[in-house]
Each structure stands twice: as C-alpha cells, then as structure tokens.
Specification:
It is a single chain. By secondary structure, the protein is an alpha+beta fold. About 35% of the residues lie in helices and about 25% in strands. Strand 1 and strand 2 form a beta hairpin. The mean pLDDT is about 95. It binds cobalt (II) ion (2 copies). The site of one cobalt (II) ion (CO) has 6 residues, from helix 1 and strand 8.
C-alpha cells in the first residue's frame, strides 16, 4: 500500500486510467476518447563497466515500460546523479549512449536534470501515447492465453559475474546486446494483435512480475522450465551460486506464490528469481492468434519464446 493513496483519492481523477489504484508499468492519463499519455521513469546504478553501454541500457530500460503498456514513446528527459570527480568524457559517454538509444527508438531527449551523488545513477523520464482502448496491463491476462517472452533470462547473474570478475567476455557481451535491445518491435506487435495482458520483466524477475500478473488477472501461470530461454552463461553462474542480492529478496517475497516441480534443482529455481535489467516483454497471446503472432514476429525479426499458459487458479506453477 502506497502512502500517497491516502492523499489522492483516485475517484476524483477520472482521466487517470492507470495509476495509484492498480500499480502497473506506467501511469496513463486520458486526454480524449482517442488518446492518452503514458508516463514512466526509471534510473539505476551501472550494470556494466562501459559508460556508453550503461547509458544505452538505462535508456532502453526506461522506455520499455511505455511499450509494455501498449504505448509509443516519443519524448524523454534525462535523470542523472553523478559523482563530482567523474571525468567529463565518462559523463558524456553515458549521455551519448542514452541519446543514441532514444534516437533509435524515435524518441527525443529534450532536457533533464543532474544532481551530485557518490554513486552514478542514470535513466529517463519517458512520455508516450496510447489509445485508451489499447492499453496493455498486468491485469489483462485471460485463461487460455499463451505466455510469450521476448528476451532470454539471466541478465542478473551475468552482470553479477562481471562485478565479481568471474565473467566470460562472450557472456557479458551477449548480455549487453540483449539489455540494450529495444522492446519497440515486441510492443508494436502486441498492439497490432490487440493483446490485453502484458508487462516487461525487470527487477522482480520472471516469477515476481509473473506473480503480479497472475494476482491482478486472477489466473494461474503455468510455466514450462524447458521452454525458457537463458543467456549462454546463466546456468553456469547459477550453479556457482553467483546471484545478485535482489534474487534472494525476490525469492523471499514471491516464493509462497510458486510451486516448482520436484525435479528442478535449487540453481534452476533461483534463476527464475534473478532480477532482470531491461528484460523482455511477457505477453498473453490468445491461443487462436498464436500461429499468426509467431509468423508476424519472425517476419519482423522479433524473437519470441512460448513459455507456458494462463490457466484457472492462482500463483505460478513451474513444470
Ligand atoms: Co515494467
Ligand atoms: Co519500471
């Protein structure tokens, strides 16, 4: 329960379509029957040690919530907190990474604000448009929807291996490539197919965001472990116990909502709690649309993995 709920009565803001009542990936405000704006912000400390890639990943991640809502981002502001002694060229590389990623998305960064802080933080405030009838939300899954994921899992373990200086170069490059990738095409596909249930997989991991969807949609998610895509190094790092602290927090918060098949060992289970940075979209696709959806995805060069199904019940079952 957010304390601001007590201050703002949602009933007095009829144009606030998504907000305090139903925390989702972004807030949505209706401008007219045809148009609403989606607004979101996110920023975080460096996940990789190259400033340009850090900026690009942070920007891709910030914009992702707009696509996750069925929206189209067009406008953004930088938010940064940077150490006093940070060399100017590092600062400008972070900003250049963010700006080029935004440009790739068709989004203009029109300003922003920077404060001083010991540890660097960077991200964007992003504004997009969405049609009020085409909003995608965590509560939109229906029994029978097929669950589709658009990026592999394992960003948390791979970047933690980097921090612990145990990472293989090829593994971190692969993680950077995926984290920098925009969810733009996936979001566009979701809107084309008029999907209703979706989110992006970020800090709470597949299980955490899955639980949010299961709870608010009043369905159970059945996930098939064998069908889940992972970054090449993820299972190896998991077996060595290289997990970020957030994975254990996620486990603590969400494990009571999940039943795992007995054959799944501890590292495999933990991998599903691994927090993701700039992860893929998790979408519910009605069964009868799945073949067309997969075909369209392939044509537009968007990888998709079918990982399970929404069924009657509660929580998550991993088989
Ligand atoms: Co999100
Ligand atoms: Co967010």
């Amino acid at each position: 329960m957010s304390p601001i709920k007590n201050i703002f009565d949602p009933a007095s803001f009829p144009d606030l379509l998504v907000g305090l009542e139903s925390p989702d990936d972004a807030a949505v405000w209706r401008l007219s029957d045809e148009q609403a704006i989606v607004i979101t912000t996110d920023f975080f400390t460096p996940v990789v040690d190259t400033p340009y890639e850090y900026g690009a990943i942070a920007a891709a991640n910030s914009m992702s919530d707009v696509w996750a809502m069925g929206g189209k981002p067009f406008f953004a502001l930088n938010i940064a907190a940077l150490p006093d002694n940070l060399p100017t060229e590092i600062l400008s590389e972070i900003m250049r990474g963010g700006a080029e990623k935004a440009k790739e998305a068709g989004v203009v960064i029109a300003g922003g604000h920077t404060v001083k802080d010991k540890e660097p933080k960077y991200g964007l405030v992003v504004i997009g448009f969405v049609h009020p009838q085409k909003i995608i939300s965590k509560s939109g899954l229906k029994v029978g929807d097929v669950l589709v994921l658009t990026k592999p899992l394992g960003a948390g373990v791979t970047t933690t291996a980097l921090k612990q200086e145990k990472v293989e170069e090829a593994h971190i490059q692969e993680a950077i490539e995926w984290m920098s990738r925009l969810n733009k095409k996936a979001g566009k596909l979701a809107v084309e197919f008029n999907l209703k249930g979706g989110t992006d997989v970020t800090g709470f991991g597949l299980i955490g965001h899955g639980v949010e969807m299961a709870e608010s949609s009043n369905v159970q998610l059945q996930i098939e472990f064998e069908k889940l895509p992972f970054l090449s190094g993820a299972k190896g790092y998991a077996e060595k116990g290289i997990f970020p602290g957030g994975a254990f927090d996620n486990k603590k918060h969400f494990e009571s909502f999940v039943t795992f098949d007995k054959t799944l060992d501890e590292p495999s289970q933990m991998l599903l709690f691994d927090p993701q940075t700039s992860g893929g979209l998790l979408l519910g696709v009605p069964k009868e649309q799945l073949a067309d959806f997969k075909k369209k995805a392939e044509e537009s060069n968007q990888q998709v993995w079918v990982i399970g199904e929404a069924v009657t019940g509660k929580g998550i079952k991993v088989k």
